[in-house]
D-alanine aminotransferase
Amino acid sequence: MITAYFNGTYIDPADLVVPIDERGHQFGDGVYEMIRVYNGTPFMLEEHIDRLYRSAHAIKLQIDPDRSALKNTMFELIQKSGLTNLDLYVQVTRGIAPRNHLFPNCPVSVSMTVKPFRTIQIGENGAGVTFYPDERWQNCYIKSLNLLPNILAKQSAHEDGYLEAILVRDGKVTEGTSSNVYMVKNSAIMTTPLSKQILSGITRMAVKDIALQAGIPFIEQQFTPDEMLQADEIFITSTTMEIMPIVRVREKVMNMGKAGAITSTLRGKFNELK
């Protein structure tokens, strides 16, 4: 089974050796996407590729091969893997060159891996979250390889028994370490507006479309942790978590420990898109 690709070669990951001078390894100098594949079809592929190119443009990285060739490589790797339901990871870095902070004059490196769906351990009805200071840089709209603040926050949440850390900057909720965050109040969905401080989530796009088509108000507005604690429902979204009900925020049980009606409606309609 072939489940990896690196710079033109399809390979078993166990046989792959990444050069020590690869800039993703040395500097985290690159961008990435995680794409969910349902029944052999990448979900919202064009939107994922659009975001990959936006991230690359933001760090002055020219992706080569072009968009069409990149997609062909994705589909060929999916086929070679023999999997139909999987997570496809795509990474583009500034290439392989002797260590130097300045941009090298060399081809970019493109790598991909595929794996079966990641299993996320949660309670019967949903997950718990906590709050954590948002200590990341100012350009979180870029899906960069530099994830150390996210990792530290998520690990801290995990050690305290929570699925996710909800990040707070200047007293306002931004997003999760690997998710967008939403609260429901008076039958309206509220989420942080897009800015440089959060990622434009692909599942967020789907949720917004579903909500508007269903006549559910979708309000892009900042809110505080205290306001979030007064919500009728809370959920988070990501490619791998899809739409995840939040039934506990620190010590407070939300909505009697069950997914709310609007969250359940969104999940049902999202499943119809897959």
